[in-house]
Design goal:
- This protein is mostly beta strands.
- It contains 1 helix and 41 strands.
- The protein folds into 5 domains: about 60 residues, no CATH class; about 110 residues, CalX-beta domain (Immunoglobulin-like), CATH 2.60.40; about 100 residues; about 120 residues, Immunoglobulin-like, CATH 2.60.40.740; about 80 residues, Immunoglobulin-like, CATH 2.60.40.
- Strands 6, 8, 9, 11, 12 and 13 form a 6-stranded mixed beta sheet that branches. Strands 26-34-33-28-31-30 form a 6-stranded mixed beta sheet, with no helix packed on it. Strands 18-19-16-22-23 form a 5-stranded antiparallel beta sheet, with no helix packed on it.
- A hairpin with a 4-residue loop joins β2 and β3.
- The longest helix is centred in the first third of the chain and has 18 residues.
- The protein is rod-shaped, with a radius of gyration of 56 Å.
- Keywords: Calcium, Repeat, Signal.
């Protein structure tokens, strides 16, 4: 009886185990029906189970229950693809050592940059691991699309698998990526050149000059291509002048088509800024697109040379133009001991800034140091060895100017040669107008006396002292031969007509107040009637 009950229990446990194979926990207690009798199982210890059968006694037998483990799925890339006909592959498998007893249907998702059905043969998202195997190879059959579209990707990601009874889930290797290499060559070449004005002799652009850009597109195939679009951002330090359409700082040129092995060109112009201080190059790159490929322009024809994708135009060093002009305020003639006032006009006639300017008036030997100077900018500094006056200016912008005056006394000589010049920290292309020389003839005699006149006449009817107007307060006394005073003025101004004076010769004394003191002149004058 004991052996029969033990066999009955073992049979029930086997049936129970088959019913709950997919469960991960161990059932320690259950109730079932055996041969019309109620049998109760209960835990006796960790490894043994006790049972009671109706009408029988309690027996104990060892029992081991093991979890059911379903293997995971994995997918790995085994080969990349390449145009025109090299196919790629992936392998979908269960764990090593597991053999499918039934067909396992595996589902997966498809992603990547390659287009399903266009770049490779259509995949439907299902694969079958046949019964008796533990893997399947899935091909990625490439389709040559004859387009330059670069390397593309096919990404397959496992979802799940089933053999109708068991469910298989993805493991650690749940995704694989197959690359499809492109074999198509770009169907066009593009390059860009810069053309400077015809009078430009050194290949360097100046402020305010025109740059003409020509963009060439060559069709490298035996069939026409198009449409294409050329776009070019206006280079820094320039303004657009002409050529197709400008939008948000970008020039756009649509090209309908380019004939087989043909070349098409487009042109536009820019004008450089008026101030290019600190700018060494004008750089620019255009782009050409056929809708699939966008390529930069090269700086030369790719067939004739090797160059990069930046078209560069050097900028002529900003040297600008400083000018100085030395003039005299007032009218001549100038005489010894006279004060002469010079006006210096310094101007930035260029298009760039000048800094650290030094304006100098190199005084000649016969001109005294100035007793008065004025300047709209800068402060005068005088020196005696050599004798000169200088003004220092920090900065002079384009179009700006400085006006300086200096007043000095004429010491001696027959002429005064005064030289002024200006220089700055920046170089100049033309230094010829950086210097100005002013020459003044000196009259040795400051006054000229007329020795005869005819009172009441149409002309020469007064006693004239040429130059007396320069010396206000001149004292004139006229004497007869007997020493009598016939005329006197404390501020003579060429106004003695001698209307009531008898004809004859008269003596005069003139006291002239000069800056160096009073000077006395004497002589005779003949009155004719």
């Amino acid at each position: 009886m004991r052996e029969q009950n033990k066999l009955l229990v073992n049979n029930l446990l086997v049936a129970f185990l088959l019913l709950f194979l997919s469960h991960a926990s161990i059932a320690k207690c259950t109730t079932g029906l055996v041969s019309g009798k109620a049998v109760t199982f209960h835990s006796a210890n960790a490894d043994n189970y006790a049972f009671n059968a109706t009408g029988g006694s309690t027996e104990t037998t060892p029992l081991t229950i093991t979890d059911k483990i379903v293997p995971t799925l994995s997918i790995i890339k085994t080969k990349d693809a390449a145009e025109p006909s090299t196919n790629g592959t992936v392998t979908i498998s269960t764990e090593a050592g597991y053999i499918a007893t039934k067909d396992i249907i595996v589902s997966y998702t498809i992603a990547g940059t390659a287009v399903n059905g266009t770049d490779y043969t259509m995949l439907n998202g299902l694969a079958i691991i046949p019964a008796g195997a533990n893997s399947v190879t899935l091909p990625v059959n490439v389709i040559d699309n004859f387009k330059t579209d670069g390397t593309r990707t096919v990404i397959l990601t496992l979802e799940s698998g089933s053999d109708g009874f068991n469910t298989f889930i993805p493991g650690a290797d749940y995704s694989a990526t197959v690359n499809i290499a492109d074999n198509d060559v770009t169907s066009f070449q593009a390059w860009k050149v810069a053309i400077l004005p015809a009078n430009n002799v050194d290949g360097k652009i100046q402020p305010g000059e025109i740059i003409t850009y020509k963009i060439y597109v060559r069709n490298t195939t035996n069939t026409a291509i198009g449409p294409l679009m050329v776009t070019d951002k206006i280079p820094a330090n320039t303004n657009w002048e002409s050529g197709w359409q400008l939008s948000s700082g970008v020039v756009g040129f649509p090209i309908t088509s380019v004939a087989a092995n043909g070349i098409t060109e487009v042109t536009f112009q820019v004008k450089t800024y008026e101030n290019l201080e600190g700018v060494e190059w004008i750089n620019n790159t255009a782009y050409v697109s056929d809708g699939t490929n966008t390529r930069p322009t090269y700086a030369c024809d790719p067939k004739t040379g090797s160059c990069d994708t930046i078209t560069r135009v050097p900028v002529r060093a900003s040297k600008g133009n400083l000018t100085i002009r030395n003039t005299i305020l007032g009218e001549g003639p100038s005489m010894m001991d006279d004060y002469i006032t010079y006006k210096l006009l310094v101007k930035n006639a260029g298009r760039s800034n000048f800094t650290k300017l030094e304006i100098t008036d190199s005084l000649p030997y016969n001109l005294d140091l100035p007793y008065q100077t004025t300047a709209t900018k800068g402060t005068a500094v005088s020196g005696t060895s050599p004798k000169k006056v200088s003004w220092h200016i920090d900065k002079l912008e384009p179009g700006d100017s400085v006006v300086i005056t200096l007043t000095s006394r004429i010491l001696s000589g027959e002429k005064v040669v005064n030289t002024s010049y200006v220089y700055a920290a920046e170089g100049e292309e033309d230094y010829s107008n950086n210097i100005s020389i002013n020459t003044v003839e000196i009259t040795n005699k400051s006054l000229h006396f007329i020795n005869a006149f005819r009172p009441g006449g149409v002309q020469n009817n007064k006693f004239v002292i040429v130059g007396i107007e320069k010396f206000p307060g001149t004292h004139l006394v006229v004497y007869s031969r007997l020493g009598n005073i016939v005329y006197e003025s404390n501020s003579y101004n060429n106004d003695w007509t001698a209307d009531n004076i008898a004809m004859g010769e008269y003596l005069y004394k003139v006291i002239v107040p000069k800056k160096t003191g009073k000077t006395t002149y004497s002589g005779s004058v003949l009155i004719i009637k």
